[in-house]
Amino acid sequence: MNSSKKSIKLFAAVIGGSAVVTTGVLSMALGQEETTPSGAAKSSTMTIGSTTTTAKKPPTVEATSMAVPAIKGPAPLPSEEKAAE
Questions:
Q1: Nearest 10 degrees: CA dihedral of 52, 55, 58, 60?
Q2: Is 42:36 a contact under the CB 8 Å cutoff?
């Protein structure tokens, strides 16, 4: 019976150790970041796209002092729920 307990403990230690190693390997494989995206252009100079506009001013809009809800009181029930009553 003593050797049976030892073999069970050894088996559990092997399973636990392999689980730790597997977790470490998977975390290393999934945690690595790609330094440059595969679809990105490799250029050392920065360029501005043809659709960029820099002289345009944003439109002037009055500041909203406080938001006001459009519906006062409880909202009406949807037609499906109204028919179920």
A1: -160
A2: yes
Phi, psi of 52 (to 5 degrees): -75, 130
| Per-residue pLDDT tens over the stretch 19-75 | 999 999 998 888 876 555 555 666 666 666 666 666 667 777 777 778 887 878 887
Are the C-beta atoms of residues 18 and 11 closer than 8 Å to each other? no
Quick check: helix, strand or coil at residue 81?
helix
Block residue for tokens 């470490």: 24
Burial bucket for residue 74 (CB in 10 Å: 0-12, 13-18, 19+): exposed
Cα angle 39, 40, 45 (rounded to 5 degrees) comes to 160
DSSP 3-state assignment of 51? coil
